[in-house]
Amino acid sequence: MNNSRHDRRLQRNRGLAAAALSAVLWALGGSAGAAEPEPAAEPEAAAEAAGGPVVRVRVDSIIHPVAVEFLADAIAEADAIGAEALVVELSTPGGLLPSTREMFTAMLGAATPVVVYVAPAGAQAASAGFFLLMAADVAAMAPGTNTGAAHPVGGQGEDIEGAMGDKVEQDAAATIRSLAARHGRNAELAEAAVLESRSFTADEALEADLIDLVAPSLTALLAELDGREVTKNGRTMTLETAEAVVETVEMSPWRRVLAALAHPNIAYILLSLGFLGIYFELMNPGSILPGVVGGICLILAFFSLSVLPVNYAGVALILLAIVLFIAEIKVPSYGMLTVGGVVSLALGGLMLFKSPLPALRVSLELVFGVALLAALVVGFLMRLALRAQRSKVRTGNEGLVGEVGRAFTPLGPDTRPGKVFVHGEFWHARAARPVAAGEAVRVVGVEGMLLDVDPAAALAPGPAVPGAAGGDGIARPEGAG
Known about the structure:
The protein is α/β, with parallel strands linked by helices.
């Protein structure tokens, strides 16, 4: 049974009049059986007369699970407070078909009339946005906006070939026909937007009976909606929006963070920084901070990938780039592995979210910027590694090679090993050529605790050996001849 809001209000007003008449009769001593007024009737009638607020939400991102949750919460709040209407200001290049289906299913099941308003000027309701527009109880657009181009594509933006492509197309066409016919719109042109990717300006959509009205602002929209009859779930309601209070529902801070993460550019940055952080930690164990930051970035990137149409070939190329960067440190490839890693990282970024919609692709500027940053980081680490490999050993027996000292006793091929003073210590040493006591020597080899030395006469005189006596600076042990 269909009852208008006007009829309900008339019935309540009649009830109030009867209650008021009964009160007068009671005050004048009339019949004791006269019905007393119900105190709750007046507040209810006053609330009815005042009308409910208009709830406004703004959806200006690609259609993904975070947007679904946001709209579902807004619908629940509008239903709970008895809102006159829910106005969804929409601007989207498209999105995921499963998320789109969840959104328009929630809209169709709402108790509150849902108005989808494509705004402001320059906004679009393309692809998935066109389905939402057709599912609205009232479809409106601002001047200078457009809608349509709703042909279904694969997860990476490619055409779906074969029987599967036909099934997806026909399913999308049937869905859009059903949504358009449900609200008395042009089902034939709506189907053309799906099968032929047709697009329409605001005026063209209005003339083609795809939308209900064109309004330049929210105030003008509410004025146009006032008095319009909307059938919702078997009930016909007359909207009273001209003087309604507008309540804006904003995204919570945490949901804003999630919505920001569900963006191809952010996902690519997080994925790249995550892998680079882990790579830096592996190359410099104990750094801690790069590993922690890299791990956090990877976890956030995995969330982004879970709500976006990811191409795992792109992820594999990014992983290959990290492997090549690590190999560059271990294998002397003269930079070829680094070049290969940079190319692999760039290709991975380009393939990570392949889509005909710019909003679902990683921007070229970002891809090349991250690739350049990765090249600089890897080059810096490679330079540090090469410097460490080429630096002289400072500890152990190998650290003695090249050190300069003084002979404490004569040395030579025909004498027994003698002693030298090197690195602040006395060592047993032997020499392949004659070395006089007090002469400068250089260590050329180490065998156990025995040093191999050569004369280093051209060197400047070094510090005297401890206990030195005489001009040669050598203190001879007792009994030395």
